[in-house]
Amino acid sequence: MLVLSGLAFVVFIGAAVLYYRGRTIPDALTAIGLALLSLTLFMIPVPPEPPEPIPPSTGGYRPHYQGHGTKTSGGRGGEVRRVSNAGQLVEAVRGRSGCNNTPETCGRIVVFDASGNYAVGGQLTIDSPYLTIAGQTAPNDGVTLVNTRYLIDTHDVVTQHIKVRLPPHSLNACSIGDAGDGGDNSHVFNVVYDHVTCTWANEVNNLLVAGPGSHDIAILDSLVGEGLWPNALGGICAAIGYKNTVARSVFSNCWSRQPIWGSPSELALYNNVTYNGTDNTYGYDTLPAFYGDADGEGNAPGTEMSVIMNNVLIPGPNSGGVRAILGISKKQGSVDLGTKIYMSGNQGPGITGPDFASQWNATVCAGSYGTYPNAATCGPSGNMRTDTLFAWWNDFNFTVMPTNQVLEKVLANAGSRPRNRDAADNRIIADIRNGTGTHFLSDGSVSLPDIPVVSRPCNLPSGVAELMEYLESDPVCGAQRLEVK
Predict the structure, then answer these.
(1) What is the C-alpha separation between 304 and 384, in angstroms, rounded?
(2) How far apart are CA 285 and CA 252, in angstroms?
(3) In the predicted model, is pLDDT for residue 167 greater than 90?
(4) Which of the four pLDDT bands, split at 50, 70 and 90, describes residue 194?
(5) Residue 168 half-sphere exposure toward CB, CA atoms < 13 A
(6) Could you tell me which of 355, 323, 324 has the C-alpha nearest to residue 342?
(7) C-alpha distances in angstroms, 26 versus 19, 22, 34, 275, 464?
(8) Predicted pLDDT of residue 7
(9) Which of 328, 375, 394, 414 has its CA at 20 to 30 Å from residue 483's CA atom?
(10) How far apart are CA 224 and CA 415, in angstroms?
(11) CATH value of 79-413 in 2.160.20, 1.10.600, 1.10.10, 3.80.20
């Protein structure tokens, strides 16, 4: 448009001169008027080209994502923000100016140009939506958040290949939703942890999905464990909220909650490995690995629809004499009549086979500590048991590994950068393989692995679709392969 207006201006100026020289004055004035009109058009600003549209996601942020929240776009199509240290990371996760709660106006992708221990201190808070933290882009030794609580307090966030260790006392290592929000976390949803390591919290959970209200959360291929003592809650692994998927992850060396979830709930818990989950310090030899609080932690009962499938439970040095796969709390003395739990294919102590009856024989019901009738009796006539999968399970089209493949595949691929684990993650996995390790770790008995600071800017494609395809591949940015498939 600019070019055409400019040419028209020149043509009409030339015509004006010719008319002035050879024609009448009115004709010349007419030509000059037309030239001025053309000049006016030339000066009108032309609106910029519309931005490249964000290509639709191909059924999830990464091809192997399945379950609640995995249709999120994360930071897809947003600004690329490069970081090389903790200070830059704090700035990079901040929301964009003009963010209007849409991927186009809010999206950010954090890319790491340097490895190392990122000591943010206190808390790294994600409170603006549509973000991807792409830890896989760091040089080979990766990125660890140290002395830092990692809090996601918004929606549509994808976190990949990050380690979180030694948060400040009384703070969770990894938090999805804030337990201090007065109980309302309805703004927290569509959150994915992909190959994340959360360890060494003191007094609270290594991983917390805070509720009520938070929903559509996926914990995939992650490693959670080794809460620190002497506080009694230090050994807690994970508390999971409503509409969650927990798959192909490791929960290791925790006193309890490997994981725990409350009601109401819609939980897909499959292909996980839990190790050394309970000690008998307080005489609770049968505290279970997986703990469903059908009464909502003392709140009003709610409907629980959980699928617990093809998980592997391994006792360890602190596991006590009797282990159970599942515990059902009935703190209020009754369980909601709609509570249904499906169990199949789980392997561990007390489970004599994959069939329906054998799975439920390895459950306990904690009416009060020290009283453990079979969990099937928690509901009226034991009606919480079901041998029929829920409609929501079928909606996700989950790919579930056979139980005999779970241990090796999960140990090989869980946590941040599993092909290049740091010393702490290697030790945790070795403890599971060797039957070693302990709950009784303290601040003084763990030390941060030394991660050298290596700078290597990552060269990224410029197009939106090309960039996302690149970040979804393995390896990226010249690093070695990170995952085991």
Answers:
(1) 9
(2) 17
(3) no
(4) very high
(5) 10
(6) 355
(7) 9, 12, 12, 97, 57
(8) 43
(9) 394
(10) 8
(11) 2.160.20
* 351/360 Cα distance (integer angstroms): 8
How many alpha carbons fall within 13 Å on the CB side of residue 239? 24
Are the C-beta atoms of residues 233 and 204 closer than 8 Å to each other?
Answer: yes
- Structural domain boundaries in the chain: 2-43, 79-413
Mean pLDDT: which of 111-125, 218-232, 346-360, 446-460 is highest? 111-125
**pLDDT mean across residues, the chain:** 77
pTM of the full predicted structure?
A: 0.83
Looking up tokens 């186009």, which residue turns up?
Answer: 104
What is the four-CA torsion angle of 128, 211, 251, 219, rounded to 10 degrees? -40
d(CA 187, CA 215): 9
Distance separating alpha carbons of residues 305 and 310, to the nearest angstrom = 17
Q: Which whole number is the average pLDDT over 121-147?
A: 94
d(CA 115, CA 453): 5
Instruction: State both tokens at 199.
Output: 């360890």
> E-assigned strands of 186-264?
189-199, 207-209, 215-220, 223-225, 238-240, 244-247, 250-252, 260-262
Residue type, 372: Y
Coil, strand, or helix at residue 344?
A: strand
Query: Which stretch of DSSP H or E encloses residue 436?
Result: none
- Is the predicted pLDDT of residue 171 greater than 90, yes or no? no
8 Å CB contact between 323 and 315: yes
Would you say 181 and 212 are in contact if contact means Cβ atoms under 8 Å apart?
Answer: no
